[in-house]
């Protein structure tokens, strides 16, 4: 076995590999850029080597710098993690020439699966289902209809040189195929100057389901079942689970066997993932093979009990797999939520800055459930603009899917993150969404269910009342604390009343509280009654309560006359007042937010790359106004309506904060 491994990566995955290496008694070497000098993976590793400036193309993906770090430390093997150099054939070849073991597949397998056309051809030859299609030249509409019938409706008619949705039609019958062919041909000619058309099967109700494979150097290959990855935003996975709530045993077996057939066809060793698109009738088609460890590998580990990183290292060292296919059973259900530094209320734009508070839920494991948090950050650390915005991967396991979802709800409610924008509220909203709970999602789930973006959660009546009862009980605890202030005059003790009005989410609930040593009984004006008990005291940012036998977890902040409470994706201002205070508050005019409709505000901390308009210019709806770069992604800001540019307040090369004015309109 190796004595020392270098991890050619950063952040969460570097920390993940270090944990397993440490468990195996293997020394670890971290590499880091200027931006990661104080990063968690650097602190965890036995040794650390500086490799350059923050941009990845000057540090983490510069092969020569990684090779220099290997020579300097004497590392015998390299684990590439995911991203960066993990699927770089030249890196694998450089290690081979140096006599250093690559903890991954052979370079020819990386090359074969890295090319989309080559990989599809190999998959077809290996007997793997691929999306049926016709890539040759189609002469006319009559031939298009004939080909469409052979493929089977519905079909997608596409321009060979297409893009942006142009030259693309879906046909469900002969008539639509003939019409669609001619329309696509005309559009393609006018848009791209190339009227070549191809036809392929249109996959309805598509799901993204992938198979985890593991192969050794002795001819053994197994599949560790599947992961459902259909909850995606712009092709970026957000929530994954294992197994899939959609597959049956026969489909699972067929997909697994085909995935192993593909792995054998390219001489694959190590861990890899074969991705499929699956339609509503459980027909599945090959998409691609990822020749590395996947981000979402923890859910597979939780349902199989196999440490994939450990097996990758053992396979690289020449060991045989310690299990056969018949030994790999599915145990329970696991879900992973990816916590990103993205603001869901601002179109999921990147958010950078310092983590002023970072308190993940406690990791725990027993026969009833598991909470696991894979992360590469810490409280006080900084989310950099140079790398992926992932903060953590929160995973839960339980014997059933329903229990795993409930465990995830509780864990998300307990996860405290402050200082940056993040997607915790959105993740909580998905966990409560009926379609997700039923397992009836497709890759279009987010686009279909949140077409206008995410604007927060409206709590249902039952949970809203539980929150109101909790707030009343918490307010009473705070009032008693205030009433017992030291230094008061004798016989001047203030009485804390029993009658209150709790206002939240546009509703007001008159109620009374009766307290005793074990808790409080909260009675609503309409007769509802809730028993609340908790050990919460003022100043704590997290409140765990029992409300009528149901566990309620609230993130707590103080506001005048009440609290800011966050639960299940909802962000609530909760006011607890006496009946007279509530009556007077109802007479107060509502404070409206300032009108910013005449301004283009910077939606995220970023760098102005270019300004596309001039002062005095008339712009049309949808016209590009400027480009802002954040986390190495360019975001084009467009006009929401027709207007005239009155003033431009920023210039190219300028760094802006959130809500800084870029330009003003007349």
Question: How would you describe what is shown here?
Answer:
The protein is of the alpha+beta class. The protein contains 17 helices and 40 strands. Strands 14-13-10-11-12-15-23-21-20 form a nine-stranded antiparallel beta sheet, with helices on both faces. The chain has an eight-stranded antiparallel beta barrel with strand order 25-26-27-28-29-30-31-32, surrounded by four helices. Strands 3-2-1-4-5 form a five-stranded parallel beta sheet. Strand 1, helix 1 and strand 2 (27-33) form a beta-alpha-beta unit. Helix 7 crosses helix 8 (174-192) and helix 12 (401-414) runs antiparallel to helix 13 (424-432). The longest helix is centred in the C-terminal third of the chain and has 23 residues, at 461-483. The model has no long low-confidence stretch (mean pLDDT 93).
């Amino acid at each position: 076995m190796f004595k020392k491994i270098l991890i050619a990566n950063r952040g969460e995955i570097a920390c993940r590999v270090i944990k397993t290496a440490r468990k195996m008694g293997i020394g670890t070497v971290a590499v880091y850029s200027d931006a990661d000098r104080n990063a968690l993976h650097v602190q965890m590793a036995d040794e650390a080597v500086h490799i350059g400036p923050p941009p990845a193309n000057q540090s983490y993906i510069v092969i020569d710098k990684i090779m220099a770090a290997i020579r300097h430390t004497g590392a015998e093997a390299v684990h590439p993690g995911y991203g960066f150099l993990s699927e770089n054939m030249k890196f694998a070849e450089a290690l081979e020439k140096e006599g250093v073991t690559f903890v991954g597949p052979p370079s020819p397998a990386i090359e074969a699966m890295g090319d989309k056309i080559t990989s599809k051809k190999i998959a077809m030859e290996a007997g793997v289902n691929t999306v049926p299609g016709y890539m040759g030249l189609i002469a006319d509409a009559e031939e298009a209809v004939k080909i469409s019938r052979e493929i089977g409706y519905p079909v997608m008619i596409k321009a060979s040189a297409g893009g942006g949705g142009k030259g693309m039609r879906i046909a469900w019958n002969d008539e639509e195929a003939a019409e669609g062919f001619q329309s696509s041909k005309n559009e393609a000619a006018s848009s791209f100057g190339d009227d070549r058309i191809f036809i392929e099967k249109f996959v309805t109700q598509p799901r993204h389901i992938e198979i985890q494979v593991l192969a050794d150097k002795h001819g053994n290959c197994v599949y560790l079942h599947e992961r459902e990855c259909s909850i995606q935003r712009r092709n970026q996975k957000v929530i994954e689970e294992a197994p899939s709530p959609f597959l049956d045993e026969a489909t699972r077996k067929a997909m697994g066997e085909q995935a192993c057939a593909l792995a054998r066809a390219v001489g694959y060793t190590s861990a890899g993932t074969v991705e499929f698109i699956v339609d509503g009738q459980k027909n599945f088609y090959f998409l691609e093979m990822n020749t590395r460890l996947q981000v979402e590998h923890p859910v597979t580990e939780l349902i199989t009990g196999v440490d994939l990183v450990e097996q990758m290292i053992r396979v690289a060292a020449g060991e045989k797999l310690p299990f056969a296919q018949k030994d790999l059973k599915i145990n329970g259900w696991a879900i992973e939520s990816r916590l990103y530094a993205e603001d869901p209320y601002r179109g999921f734009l990147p958010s950078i800055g310092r983590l002023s508070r970072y308190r993940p839920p406690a990791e725990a494991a027993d026969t009833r459930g598991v909470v696991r948090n894979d992360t590469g950050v810490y409280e006080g650390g900084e989310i950099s603009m140079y790398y992926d915005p992932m903060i953590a991967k929160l995973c839960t396991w339980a014997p059933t899917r329903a229990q795993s979802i409930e465990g995830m709800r509780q864990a998300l409610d307990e996860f405290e993150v402050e200082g940056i924008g993040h997607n915790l509220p959105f993740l909580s909203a998905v966990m409560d969404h009926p379609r997700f709970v039923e397992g009836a999602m497709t890759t279009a789930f987010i686009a279909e269910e949140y077409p206008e973006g995410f604007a927060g959660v409206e709590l249902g009546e039952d949970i809203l009342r539980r929150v109101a009862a909790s707030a009343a009980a918490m307010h009473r605890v705070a009032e008693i604390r205030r009433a017992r202030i030291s230094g008061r005059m004798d016989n001047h003790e203030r009485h804390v009343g029993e009658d209150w009005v709790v206002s939240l989410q546009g509703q007001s609930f008159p109620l009374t509280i009766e307290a005793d040593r074990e808790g409080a009984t909260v009675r609503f004006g309409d007769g509802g009654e809730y028993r609340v008990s908790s050990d919460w005291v003022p100043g704590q940012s997290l409140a765990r309560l029992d409300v009528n036998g149901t566990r309620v977890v609230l993130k707590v902040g103080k506001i005048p006359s009440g609290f800011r409470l966050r639960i299940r994706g909802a962000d609530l201002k909760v006011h607890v007042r006496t009946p007279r205070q509530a009556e007077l508050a109802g007479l107060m005019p509502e404070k409206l937010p300032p009108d910013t409709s005449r301004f283009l505000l910077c939606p995220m901390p970023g760098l102005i790359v270019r300004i596309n308009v001039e002062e005095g210019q008339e712009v049309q709806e949808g016209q590009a106004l400027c480009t802002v770069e954040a986390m190495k992604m360019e975001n084009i800001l467009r006009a929401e309506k027709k207007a005239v540019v009155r003033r431009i307040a920023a210039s190219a090369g300028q760094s802006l904060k959130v809500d800084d004015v870029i330009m003003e309109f007349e």
